[in-house]
């Protein structure tokens, strides 16, 4: 494999892995903050137990999100130096803003929250988790603005002499349609993931008859959050498709493996096709649905891959402008499929829980155990779709991925770092899952309100939190 | 002052902040086995870092992001050129973060010993390699213009392991160890504090010798005399001695402040020696990366300046406040059942 292929694999591995932890972190930060607010307002200890129990799980997850995020900040320079030179004037800005506005906030206030139970007044301690949660939102916003610029560059001019894109309008970059719809698609997805995790874990506690007093309300909280966020995901997903059709028609055509321009284009639920995806053998279609998804009109014209290829050749010169179509087709469906299964389980459980009922049936255990994993699968496929179906471009229309790789880094060096990162990440996943399972197995414990002392000086009181 | 100079300064500030803050927590990470006699000691030491290590580490992420935004050519040449050392640093930072968070979850001796070794090594590697990297930047590395016009690193990995750079690594390693010992002396009580005092004196001397040789060498190595760099070098040495003296006199707050200031003047000196270059080339000054040929446009720098001017003071205020909230000394006697894991304690 060339250093380009290896660098792409490395980026895929490190980024997909990092983003398994991010959505859960964002979603759970708000849920834990909500639970602590419930405790603050009602003084009911079940909410304190829930805050601490889910807080422990949240932190185990957060640790890996943080450390794998460090690689994200530097790998553009390491493996993608030509890309960095080309986009740095624009792409670097949101990254630096993310650090200055979001990372400092998250890390500092989370530190205050973890160790501040007996050091901060109750209200300030509650505020610190809300501030940390807000930090995760800001972080998502800036990084999505950077990514959206790769999908749809705006607010720039090309400097041909220096061979790079240069920023002319930061407001355009931060507020373009692509950024906004992506943000409102990603954040509810993160809420969906965090909520599914809380619901799944709570369900397990109910099955094991542990602290049902706590687990019932947290399960409901998780399930209801899932359903509400799913509505937002659906609406923003629909908007995203339209923006995508307008800006990156090739991506939408690839998502449907639509080769020829068609009006009233159908959306296929399932295709059994030849391996390269060039023709279908068996297909279940929803008539006109693709036209509606892409244009908002059942009779709308959707451009096909072959026609787009032709027009891109005219515009950008000879070359292959088709992404990996089977991958785009299937990742798009798997994204939606896993999301739908998740919300279906949530609705079913909520239905059985109405009027004080307890979910029952053979489906319940397996469904609830799978619940935390479904959104993660959906989100991963969503990003795999978004990023691979933009290929061959790194920044749509401006720079190809192949032209972004570092010229001075050998394939051997990339291979070596990729192997080490992959092994290290594997070991960390193993350890992380072990700790999460152990924490769940122990379950919530009795909690008491801590005595707060804000004075300095020597102190012999036992610490509430120590490493 | 041009925007480029302003951003050169700001990036210097970010690295200074990073080396002062994560400098001590690298030091503490390495000192754990040497200041602790038992589990309670080790956990007390770790607890001094608990609330702050992550916030400290963000300084390097922001330094990286700011370099990307303000000097993309520097970011690209540096991190693709210093590929393996940076990779090792990243691995170190990954392992360290997880080790801090997970180490005390279980009580099993083997679990903890493994993480303790991980903390020691993963603190030492970046502490050493950041020095190697910066010394190489100041010394100049083989940079050449590629066919596409970009200035690329053309030396190999072993090119970076020259005596001057290795000495730079020894300087940061020993300086961070001493700085960490000052921090521990300030933040702990009882025997840990006493041991930290004693270690700070011994390691501080080694650091002083290494730093003086390094600074003299650096001053002589520069193509032309640089009076500002020379002044900052002397100031670094004086502040370092003041820090050691304060430590000797058990004035822990002063010792920590002085070693922080010494790090600040040391890093400032390196940046002063570089200015206006950001990465000099050893193959001729026509291949130097400078604040002019490596920078972003004035528009980008202006936008980022506004963000930085508003946010940096705010960050300093709330990070400073965190240190105030956790200003109490931590003593081993405050750790209940140190041998039990956090998770095991929960199940009791």
Write up this protein.
- The complex is a heterodimer of chains A (467) and B (348).
- Chain A has 467 residues and is mainly alpha-helical.
- Chain A has 2 domains: 3-248 and 324-442; 257-322, no CATH class.
- Chain A has helices at 3-42, 45-79, 81-115, 122-151, 170-175, 177-207, 212-247, 249-255, 289-295, 305-316, 325-353, 364-370, 373-388, 411-442, and strands at 156-159, 164-167, 262-263, 267-273, 280-286, 301-302, 393-395, 399-400.
- Chain A has a two-stranded antiparallel ribbon with strand order 1-2. In chain A, strands 3-6 form a two-stranded antiparallel ribbon.
- The longest helix of chain A is centred in the first third of the chain and has 40 residues, at 3-42.
- In chain B, strand 1 and strand 2 (151-153) form a beta hairpin.
- In chain B, the strands form 2 sheets. A two-stranded antiparallel sheet of chain B has the order 1-2. Chain B has a two-stranded antiparallel sheet with strand order 3-4.
- Chain B is 74% helix and 3% strand.
- Chain B has helices at 3-35, 39-49, 53-70, 72-81, 83-102, 109-139, 163-187, 191-221, 227-248, 252-274, 298-325, 342-347; strands at residues 143-145, 151-153, 277-279, 289-290.
- In chain B, helix 1 runs antiparallel to helix 6 and helix 7 (163-187) packs antiparallel against helix 8.
- Chain B has a single domain (10-331), classed as Up-down Bundle (Formate dehydrogenase/DMSO reductase fold), CATH 1.20.1630.10.
- Chain B is mostly helical and 348 residues long.
- Classes of the chains: A mainly alpha (467), B mainly alpha (348).
- At the A-B interface, helix 2, helix 3, strand 2 and helix 14 of A face helix 2, helix 3, helix 4, helix 5 and helix 11 of B.
Tell me the number of helical segments of chain B per DSSP (H or I, 4 or more residues long).
Answer: 12
The Rg value of chain B, from CA coordinates, equals 21 Å
Quickly give the structural class of chain B. mainly alpha
Q: Under the CATH scheme, which architecture of chain B would be assigned?
A: Up-down Bundle
The order of strands across the largest sheet of chain A is 1-2
